[in-house]
Amino acid sequence: MQLEMDKKKNGLNTICTHAGELRDNEFKGAIAPLYMSTSYAFDDVDVKRYPRYFNTPNQEALGKKIAALEHTEAALIFGSGMAAISTTMLAFLKSGDHVVLQQTLYGGTYHLIVEEFNKFGIEYSFTQGWRPEDFEDLVKENTRVIYVETPSNPLLTITDLSRIAGIAKKYGLISMIDNTFASPVNQNPIDFGIDIVIHSATKYMGGHSDICAGVVASTQENIAPIFGLAKNLGGSLSDYTVWLLERSIKTMGIRVKAQNENARRMAEFLASHGDIQKVYYPGLPDHPDHTIAKSQMKGFGGMLSFELNESLDARQFQKALGLIKSSMSLAGVESTVLSPALTSHALLGAEERKRQGISNALIRFSVGIEETEDLIADIEEALKKVKKVHKGQLQ
Ligand SMILES: *Cc1c(COP(=O)(O)O)cnc(C)c1O
To answer: Domain ends where: 192, 214, 249?
Structure first.
């Protein structure tokens, strides 16, 4: 039923299109059939297929594609990125254990830790920065897990994956990464020694702002305890959405490469613009972590952040944009912006935001696949409007 592929022999877009594909042998249809059954007759009592056991035909096929994309042996698909993150962390942490986490985590992950971990008796420490020493300094006797996110949200800092993997090996920890911002197109953390790779597939894997899903990829050995907990917690994804996600990933390579290129051109345009004070993009040579980014990323991604000059109102600027929408999520084919201080990082509080370097003027930009010239024109137009109109006069 399955087309087995040797991932080493095939390039990115071939893996995206074909790896793990389910063949329609009966009718020879071009795309994978969708198996919505929640019940499967026993041929062999050892294989009990059931959606919440993460082993329906569509789940297994997509798991193979994701494993091929992340250079791992196995992968599981979840109902959301947070289901993947929470299940994976709790599979490796028990009462009395300690986890070291990067400071600038996705908001949902941060809330999972600070709102839930005390209940389970799991200790945690957040780093003060993203240098490897910041992590190593926090490792204690009972530390079990080290958790990173790179590029980070919203300042696009880069954490050195080889060195994090080295720390994990030295102290016998499991290293985990949220690889959402990079996508497997731009970064394969397993190649640098990281143990477990997690994605919110809601973002680049889905890519069209119409799927909520999560994935975890690692060795069979690491996936086994994650699966063990996952079937008890019950965070599986509906097969219909699994099928849609498989379809989306077929174009992930070409989408993300287009987004990389658009983001690079937007970053260069913004960096050279007189009304822009600062641009954060790991692909720019003057980004403080550019060298590390170059050593571990194949592309610099479609996310960037920037600050307008102080005299310009960032909120009015976002309202004045036309083509580029203000929106919470990211990584769709459409370009979006948001103000981290008002949305994703609002709950951190002004003081902590200031400490992390997230100013009120900061704008996070998820660059889509539109023509670069049209995005530039939209920004130029919005800048003209905010310069002309006094604060508060735009609606
Ligand atoms: C969106 C996101 C998540 C959470 O994923 P959901 O699919 O919304 O549960 C986790 N990490 C990062 C970096 C994200 O952007």
So the answer is: 249
